[in-house]
């Protein structure tokens, strides 16, 4: 007895699905990380520069003198952010 078209189509779908599942899935690579070194160097140097300027001329700069000891946190935060960005480098 001849098979129906519906049965053939269902079998073809099952075979195609089985073949797709048998193939290993491709892993997508992350994008380029060329931005990381210049970024972490820049952020780290800004943190160090903030601290140096604060210690040398912090009392002469109006907004820095208003911040007081928060300047230390800002400078250290910049260096910590640079370290965090550096962990993204591959």
TrEMBL record:
* Biological processes annotated in GO: cell division
Disordered: where is this region? Answer: 1-31
Q: Which InterPro entries match?
A: CrgA
Keyword field contains Cell division: yes
- The residues that cross the membrane are 35-57, 69-89
Is Membrane there in the keyword field?
yes
Protein topology in the membrane:
Multi-pass membrane protein
Q: Name one Pfam family in it.
A: CrgA
User: Which intervals carry biased composition (Basic and acidic residues)?
Assistant: 1-24
Q: Report keywords, A-Z.
A: Cell cycle, Cell division, Cell membrane, Membrane, Transmembrane, Transmembrane helix
Cellular localisation = Cell membrane
Q: Which family does it belong to?
A: Belongs to the CrgA family.
Q: Its biological function?
A: Involved in cell division.
Q: What is this protein called?
A: Cell division protein CrgA
Tell me the organism.
Microlunatus ginsengisoli
**Gene name of this polypeptide:** crgA
């Amino acid at each position: 007895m001849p098979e129906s078209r519906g049965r053939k189509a269902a079998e073809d779908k099952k075979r195609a699905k089985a073949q797709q599942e048998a193939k290993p899935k491709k892993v997508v690579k992350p994008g380029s990380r060329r931005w990381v070194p210049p970024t972490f160097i820049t952020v780290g140097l800004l943190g160090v520069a903030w601290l140096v300027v604060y210690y040398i001329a912090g009392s002469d700069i109006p907004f820095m003198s208003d911040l007081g000891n928060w300047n230390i946190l800002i400078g250290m935060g910049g260096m910590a952010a640079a370290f965090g960005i550096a962990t993204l480098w591959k």
